[in-house]
Task: inverse folding
């Protein structure tokens, strides 16, 4: 036993091991709402307003600078009439996005009314190539009409997608409302269900995190439930899916917000949190609207509020709209953002389950994970297991995009093969053959046509040198330049790197520069440059703080392997479900 | 004396294996620290033990058997963990990380650090891995730009590796909150404020970021053309900062070939912990000013009768105010009186051209003979009371001791005082009466152990910047900060409760706080019963100050008063730090009495994190007072009017002594203008012309003296009235001890030789002593110190040999082995009965209240960049460049009401004088108040101030007089 003295040491001893230094992070309430308010009032953030905010809030100017320069949502110049955002990431790239972008540049580049910005994935891969005009998403073909409307001050709001038939993970009949739904939550709050039973059911069901990491959900809930009983805890639904090709959560939010919220509320009740949030990406305006309407209905019906379902317990859920950036999907970056800091991932451990929002134990799951919880709790682990193919359990949502006839979200039994899923989406567009598939979002390794019979599941994906990741299946037709496609993916990671750690900040840029030069010049990747890419991949994978940097070069390297012999060149850096990898 | 009460916390341990070495460490220990314990060094870039780890450079990654490597600097050890710190894969990773960073660095030949101090940590890592920008095959980038807008710090964004060391240095260590990360991804860069040029930002140029930076991103610029070279090529002199009472330890790196300082750096010491502010780090070049006095000067006959010699002081000059921002600097490369391009900086320092012709150079023999003869004559004619001496709180303990000994034994008078009279005389008076000692009861660093702190009447971010950094840091660790001050200085931004009371209402405020504490039963009854006297009287007095009444007097709402009372009263340990906003009032002693009572009734004295700390201004005001440079005390505060004491000193010094108290600074000036008053003065390093209140009166007094000898390093405004001017050494040119605000006695070491014939003050004092017949034979300051210590029980056991590099706190029973006493009075107070004497005070208004003709309250004080009368700082390139002009700070409405805009010239009038200066519209001022710093002779604030004094402490009311501000109509 070591002895230390004095108050300073006492304070040190209260520190949670591994919590990194503040390094410019200011305690106190987040300034993001105040910045949002200024921007809502004036359309941008004039310097004088920022100085006044600094003075009134007694917060340093540099903190404000750190935020407004980090989050793309914030403007330091007056806006133009028309903000034309054009997606340039993989799904759009595969559908001639570069050519469409060039046309838009030619048309609007000199237009003083129009600010044309290339942006990262808008999550509209089903209508690729996609644009957003004054934040209204649309296929590129609608640009002209929308720009004309915006010039006149009118773009209107896009509706969220609708669906009458319930998805197979929905226990409630079509046409149900709040009174019929939320039955599991009511039962739990009435004491008819035991929280420990719920945790056990989830463990038995083998439900895993559907946001990309695949961490066992029951284990996570159990951990947070057991952490500091009685202390303040929080729960967050991570609805910040932003990876190219990934838009399944958007559809789930649009069509079954009741399941997402019931799952979140169950999580809150089980772990002992009174306050929960849905952290939603700002590009999902239509879905945010649906979610808010459902929340209003819940409050109205007394399902949430100070006396949730008449239980005497407080349960409140709020929507937190992301100020932008893929990195916020990384759970600790998300927490940093909610605390009002730059969205830079934390060093881990500690993990959010122990040390989350404001240092409190925080339960965090993605949209799809929460949405699966009510039916599993209602029908049991065995029922869930029976839904999968073979050894696989449950249902799985996949967003299929790229070179397919019907890009869309499909809910299929876990264990469905890649080929079956592509067929469901109408097959490869134009009747071509499959050249390669990225089966788990932008950070998964590409697989070749030889792997089309691979059952889509966490374990089988790993066995095949890739992963299930974010549930985005991007199909590349035969003849697609895979190096160009994977360099496009790398550019996304480079653009979305937060810049906190050296390997990701500098490594992604250097690797991209090397590969872009090769792709643009149409030359071969020579051995020297290949060696540089490989050693950069290694250093990024082994030393980056978070998953973004760890996987950024993986897809490129997997393609190098395909060129050599049709197999992925390297093992995916995420053994599924291992305790040390809850990264995105 | 020492309080050693310790709150112990027990910590569990874990066992890890590092490169085969098993080690047990406290839970939470990082792998990096554990590795160090077993002698394994892990390379780092972003990590440094001074800062909390952030794990961003990834250089320290180690293999713990996980899927990815762990950053050793931040990853805690886990029980049973097997760590490898050096494998081929790790080496490869570190080499590649280094190469990635090197690819964007400036070419080595242009690296700002490699061509100066040559201690670029990244370059040395790169050398170790054999990688270089010049040879890498990775794409190289650059072009993030440079920023040279700060006068002494260069920023090179290409050289920046975003290690966040500067961010943590600026925020976590100094609490200045200027530097952060701007942008995202590869475009991220460090930024000042809203990505402003460093020189235009709120940066206070403390240089902590430069000291923190491992690469060439933040580097010092050369000052006065002296190149910055590698430390090993320079002579390192470990010394102490010459400016404020915080007494930061530093090292001067001296270029012996050029005979000048190359740069300065903070040095570790238990108090200042390597921190410095702009004055300490960049303000040392005044000593190299060509305006230094290098020969003794004697006033020529034609210059009599005496009066001010320069136009600025005479008030009849043409001082070109329109060109205030003309960009010309005082000092730098200029010969005395040299008019650059015929245009002198308006105002500014004494104009040598105008003044020098009134003096002639003399030999030391002639000058010293003259001084001795004239002082003896004045003494012979007017008796002991005709002589007075002003010593200086900027001189060493030894010099202070010798000076008072000279006046007392050579002229048999106690008319010896120094600028403590102008800063904390009232605090000292109240402390003596209350607790029996004028020194602080605990250190500034002890704030770390406090649950609550009151900082009052003090602007520590400007006046005690390094101490303030500890206050700010404590708050970030949970100490509640209550800031009570009429001005919203930057400390207000770091306060949990900011009480912006009306000036001069402190007694009412604190009485009311005590009223509430008593009403709420938050007093420490046991402490009151066992450790204090006169509580009932105090309680009766404060009973008349319910919050509602105090609210009317102070302008602070009653709820805030209640909140302060509750916060203070409920704290387990609470401490108060105060400055001249408390002391410089006609009620200064009463103000301090209230603070003493506040601490005492809540039991907040004598334990860690509790106590009374008047933040001392000058670097040696504590030591000069300790050494007896005050009219009522011999060394160690032994009263001159106590016969037993006098007899002991008469024996020690071998002469008879004056049994009466002498006159104080303000009384001496007053006495000169009276019959049978002081006729001859010895002024050692003091410049009362700018520092004393109501300068017009001072001017009359100085001119009326029969004989004035001024001993200084520059021709000061006071020297314009001198008969003889003696050139002394600057702080940097002599050895001596200095006692800081914490009671830390430190050695200041000689850095370089004095210019011309300038001589150390102690030698000059000794030469005069001998010439008036005293038998003095001190061979060195060390001998003087030993004599002093023999007469001062507080300093007992201290010697030049045991002060060491970081000095020692007094009292100190064992300086060989301990740092000394942090907390005083743990068992008894120094009073005769050992009890704290509570002295109630009734609120009294200041002497000159605003009226229709003079409707504003003037507050005076200092700026961060300047020191007192500016004789040093205005000759420092950095400090003068950052703060070149005098300004009156005004509330936006007060300015607008008068039609005054920011940057316009204004006239400020009081009943005593008029000055003209620029307007600074400032949200830090209260409505109806304005503030002027007193450093600027061209707009001397003390022309306006009132010379009313506190009846006990005899301190002038610098913080309150009535003025009017009017437009002048000149825009700059």
Result:
């Amino acid at each position: 036993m070591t002895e230390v003295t004095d108050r300073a040491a006492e304070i040190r001893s209260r520190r949670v091991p591994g919590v990194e230094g503040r390094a410019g992070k200011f305690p106190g309430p987040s300034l993001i709402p105040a910045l949002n308010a200024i921007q809502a009032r004036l359309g941008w953030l004039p310097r004088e307003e920022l100085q006044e905010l600094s003075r009134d809030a007694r917060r340093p100017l540099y903190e404000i600078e750190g935020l407004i320069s980090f989050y793309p949502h914030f403007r330091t110049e007056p806006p133009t009439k028309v903000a034309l955002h054009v997606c340039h990431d993989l799904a759009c790239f595969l559908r001639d996005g570069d050519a469409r972008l060039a046309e838009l540049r030619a048309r609007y580049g000199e237009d003083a009314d129009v600010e044309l910005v290339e942006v990262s994935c808008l999550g509209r891969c089903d209508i690729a190539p996609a644009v957003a005009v004054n934040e209204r998403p649309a296929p590129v073909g609608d640009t002209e009409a929308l720009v004309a409307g915006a010039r006149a001050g009118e773009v209107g709001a896009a509706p969220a997608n609708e669906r009458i038939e319930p998805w197979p993970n929905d226990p409630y009949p079509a046409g149900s409302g709040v009174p019929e739904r939320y039955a599991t939550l009511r039962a739990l709050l009435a004491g008819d269900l035991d929280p420990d039973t719920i945790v056990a059911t989830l463990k038995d069901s083998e439900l895993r995190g559907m946001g990309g990491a695949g961490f066992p959900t029951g284990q996570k809930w159990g951990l947070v439930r057991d952490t500091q009983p009685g202390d303040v805890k929080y729960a967050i639904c991570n609805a910040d899916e932003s990876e190219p090709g990934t838009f399944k959560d958007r559809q789930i939010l649009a069509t079954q917000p009741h399941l997402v919220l019931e799952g979140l509320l169950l999580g809150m009740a089980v772990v002992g949190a009174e306050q929960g949030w849905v952290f939603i990406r700002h590009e999902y305006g239509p879905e945010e609207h649906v979610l808010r309407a459902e929340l209003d209905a819940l409050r109205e019906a007394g399902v949430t509020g100070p006396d949730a379902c008449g239980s005497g317990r407080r349960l409140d859920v709020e929507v937190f709209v992301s100020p932008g950036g893929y990195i916020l999907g990384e759970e600790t970056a998300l927490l940093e953002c909610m605390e009002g800091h730059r969205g830079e991932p934390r060093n881990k451990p500690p993990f959010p389950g122990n040390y989350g929002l404001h240092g409190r134990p925080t339960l965090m799951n993605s949209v799809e994970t929460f949405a699966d919880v009510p039916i599993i709790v209602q029908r049991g682990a065995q029922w869930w297991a029976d839904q999968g193919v073979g050894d696989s359990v449950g249902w799985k949502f996949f967003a299929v995009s790229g070179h397919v006839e019907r890009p869309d979200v499909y809910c299929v039994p876990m264990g469905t093969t890649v080929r079956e899923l592509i067929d469901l989406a109408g097959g490869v567009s134009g009747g071509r053959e499959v050249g390669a598939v990225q089966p788990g979002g932008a950070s998964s390794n590409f697989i070749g046509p030889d792997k089309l019979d691979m059952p889509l599941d966490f374990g089988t994906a790993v066995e095949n040198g890739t992963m299930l990741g974010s549930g985005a299946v991007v199909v590349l037709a035969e003849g697609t330049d895979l190096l160009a496609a994977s360099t496009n993916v790398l550019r996304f990671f480079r653009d979305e790197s937060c810049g906190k750690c050296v390997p990701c900040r500098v490594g992604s840029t250097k690797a991209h520069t090397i590969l872009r030069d090769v792709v643009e010049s149409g030359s071969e990747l020579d051995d020297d440059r290949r060696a540089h890419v490989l050693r950069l991949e290694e250093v990024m994978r082994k030393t980056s703080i978070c998953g973004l940097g760890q996987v950024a070069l993986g897809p490129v390297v997997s393609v190098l392997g395909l060129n050599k012999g049709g197999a992925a060149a390297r093992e995916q850096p995420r053994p599924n479900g291992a305790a040390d990898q809850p990264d995105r | 004396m020492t309080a050693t009460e310790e709150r112990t916390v027990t910590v569990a341990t874990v066992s890890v294996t590092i490169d085969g070495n098993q080690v047990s460490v406290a839970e939470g220990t990082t792998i990096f620290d554990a590795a160090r314990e077993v002698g394994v060094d892990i390379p780092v870039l972003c990590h440094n033990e001074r800062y909390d780890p952030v794990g961003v450079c990834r250089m320290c990654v180690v293999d713990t058997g996980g899927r990815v490597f762990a950053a050793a600097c931040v990853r805690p050890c886990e029980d049973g963990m097997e760590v490898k710190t050096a494998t081929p894969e790790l080496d490869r990773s570190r080499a590649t990380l280094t190469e990635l960073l090197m690819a964007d660095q400036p070419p080595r030949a242009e690296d700002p650090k490699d061509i100066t101090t040559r201690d670029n940590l990244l370059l040395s890592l790169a050398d170790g891995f054999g990688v270089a920008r010049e040879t890498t095959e990775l794409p190289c980038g650059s072009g993030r730009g440079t920023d040279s807008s700060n006068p002494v710090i260069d920023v090179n964004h290409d050289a920046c590796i975003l290690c966040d060391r500067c961010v943590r240095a600026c925020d976590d260590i100094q609490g200045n909150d200027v530097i952060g990360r701007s942008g995202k991804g590869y475009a991220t860069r460090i930024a000042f404020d809203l990505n402003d040029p460093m020189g235009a930002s709120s940066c206070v140029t403390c240089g902590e970021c430069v000291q923190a930076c491992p690469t060439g991103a933040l580097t010092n610029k050369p000052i006065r053309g002296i190149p910055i070279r590698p430390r090993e090529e320079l002579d390192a002199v470990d010394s102490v900062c010459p400016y404020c009472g915080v007494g930061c330890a530093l090292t001067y790196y001296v270029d012996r070939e050029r005979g000048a300082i190359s740069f300065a750096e903070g040095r570790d010491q238990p108090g200042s912990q390597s921190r410095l502010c702009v004055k300490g780090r960049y303000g040392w070049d005044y000593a190299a000013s060509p305006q230094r006095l290098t020969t003794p000067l004697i006033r020529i006959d034609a210059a009599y009768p005496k009066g001010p010699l320069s136009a600025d002081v005479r008030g009849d000059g043409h001082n070109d105010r329109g060109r205030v921002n003309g960009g010309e600097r005082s000092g730098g490369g200029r010969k005395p009186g040299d008019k650059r391009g015929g245009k002198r900086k308006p105002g500014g320092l004494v104009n040598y051209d105008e003044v020098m012709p009134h003096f002639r150079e003399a030999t030391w023999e002639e000058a010293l003979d003259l001084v001795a003869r004239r002082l003896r004559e004045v003494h012979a004619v007017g008796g002991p009371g005709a002589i007075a001496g002003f010593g200086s709180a900027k001189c060493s303990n030894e010099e202070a001791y010798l000076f008072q000994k000279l006046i007392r034994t050579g002229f048999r008078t106690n008319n010896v005082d120094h600028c403590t009279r102008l800063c904390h005389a009232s605090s000292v008076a109240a402390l003596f009466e209350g607790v029996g000692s004028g020194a602080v009861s605990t250190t500034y660093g002890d704030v770390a152990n406090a649950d609550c702190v009151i900082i009052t009447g003090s602007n520590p971010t400007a006046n005690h910047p390094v101490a303030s950094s500890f206050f700010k840091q404590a708050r970030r660790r949970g100490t509640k900060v209550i800031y009570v001050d009429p001005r919203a200085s930057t400390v207000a931004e770091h306060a949990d409760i900011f009480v912006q009371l009306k000036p001069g209402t402190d007694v009412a405020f604190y009485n009311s706080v005590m009223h509430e504490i008593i009403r709420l039963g938050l007093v420490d009854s046991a402490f009151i019963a066992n450790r204090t006297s006169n509580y009932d009287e105090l309680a009766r007095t404060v009973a008349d100050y319910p919050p509602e009444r105090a609210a009317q007097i102070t302008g602070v709402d009653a709820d805030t008063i209640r909140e302060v009372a509750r916060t203070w009263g409920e704290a387990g340990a609470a401490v108060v730090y105060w400055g001249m906003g408390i002391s410089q009032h006609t009620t200064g002693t009463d103000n301090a009495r209230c603070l003493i009572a506040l601490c005492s009734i809540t039991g907040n004295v004598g334990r860690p994190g509790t106590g009374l700390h008047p933040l001392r201004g000058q670097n040696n005001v504590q030591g000069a007072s300790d050494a007896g440079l005050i009219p009522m005390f011999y060394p160690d505060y032994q009263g001159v009017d106590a016969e037993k004491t006098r007899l002991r000193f008469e024996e020690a010094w071998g002469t008879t002594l004056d049994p009466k108290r002498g006159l104080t600074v303000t009384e001496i000036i007053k006495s000169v203008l009276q019959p049978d008053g002081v006729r001859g003065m010895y002024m050692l390093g003091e410049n009362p012309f700018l520092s004393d209140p109501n300068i017009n009166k001072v001017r009359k007094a100085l001119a009326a003296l029969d004989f004035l000898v001024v001993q200084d390093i520059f021709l000061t405004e006071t020297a314009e009235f001198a008969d003889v001017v003696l050139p002394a050494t600057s702080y940097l040119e002599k050895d001596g001890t200095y006692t800081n605000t914490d009671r830390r006695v430190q050695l200041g070491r000689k850095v370089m030789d004095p210019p011309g014939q300038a001589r150390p003050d102690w030698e000059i004092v000794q030469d005069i002593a001998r010439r008036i017949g005293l038998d003095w034979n001190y061979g060195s300051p060390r001998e003087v110190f030993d004599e002093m210590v023999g007469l001062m029980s507080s300093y007992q056991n201290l010697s030049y040999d045991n002060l060491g590099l970081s000095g020692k706190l007094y009292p100190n029973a064992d300086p060989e082995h301990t740092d000394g006493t942090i907390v005083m009075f743990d068992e008894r107070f120094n009073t005769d009965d050992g009890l704290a004497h509570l002295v109630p005070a009734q609120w009294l208004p200041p002497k000159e209240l605003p009226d229709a003709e003079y409707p504003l309250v003037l507050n005076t004080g200092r700026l961060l960049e300047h020191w007192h009368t500016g004789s040093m700082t205005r000759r420092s390139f950095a400090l003068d460049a950052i703060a070149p002009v005098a300004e009156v700070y005004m509330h936006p409405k007060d300015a607008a009401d008068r039609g005054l805009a920011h940057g316009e010239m204004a006239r400020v009038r009081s009943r005593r004088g008029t000055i003209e200066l620029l307007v600074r519209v400032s949200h830090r001022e209260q409505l109806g108040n304005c503030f002027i710093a007193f450093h600027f002779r061209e707009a001397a604030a003390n022309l306006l101030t009132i010379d009313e004094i506190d009846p006990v402490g005899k301190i002038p009311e610098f913080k309150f007089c009535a003025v009017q501000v009017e437009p002048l109509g000149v825009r700059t």
Notes: Chain B touches chain A through 82 residues (CB under 8 Å). The longest helix of chain B spans residues 364-382. The mean pLDDT of chain B is 93. Chain B is about 25% helix and 15% strand.
